[in-house]
Write a structure and sequence with these properties.
single chain; mainly alpha
Length: 169
């Protein structure tokens, strides 16, 4: 890593910003899903990601996913287990961003529309979303997860403070 990038990373600022944005986003999205679990389950069903012979798998995912998102968001915001939480959320983002892109492409093809003209309930909890906007948002969250994973700094993380015997910062 070039020395300028190393100094910026060592400051802890990129890591802190990435943790707060990703953590806050997933806490918010998880809470939105918890407010209307039936709508979330219906949106999941639209993706055809689960075998029809095993509806319990889709139900279990719909029940567990909001809590997992909130837990990972809290871990990121607190600076505890940041790499594990970021990796979990990165995998979720990869799976669901791919599914959103495929669904948007399918809807665009069916309606003879441009991809950015497609809007549908992607299951994120925020209702009907423009496909291109949601894909851009998810791409930004993916990049921020990668910042968390790539950072060597642990400044402003509780784990680092606990190992040093001090407080974060």
């Amino acid at each position: 890593m070039p020395s300028g990038l190393r100094r910026v990373d060592e400051s802890g600022v990129p890591l802190l910003v990435a943790r707060l944005v990703v953590g806050g986003a997933f806490i918010w999205l998880g809470l939105l899903k918890l407010q209307d679990p039936v709508a979330f389950l219906k949106a999941l069903r639209e993706y055809d990601m689960f075998p029809p012979a095993h509806p319990w798998l889709m139900n279990a995912t719909a029940a567990a996913l909001p809590g997992a998102e909130i837990a990972c968001g809290l871990l990121l915001m607190l600076g505890v287990g940041v790499r594990g939480a970021a990796l979990f959320l990165l995998v979720l983002l990869a799976v669901f961003t791919t599914a959103i892109a495929a669904r948007a492409s399918e809807l665009a093809h069916q309606g003879s529309l441009a991809l950015c003209a497609v809007a549908f309930d992607c299951g994120c909890g925020a209702g009907v979303q423009n496909a291109c906007r949601k894909l851009a948002e998810n791409t930004g969250l993916v990049l921020l997860c990668l910042v968390v994973l790539a950072s060597r700094s642990r400044r402003w993380c509780w784990r680092g403070a606990l190992l040093r015997g001090g407080t974060p910062g």
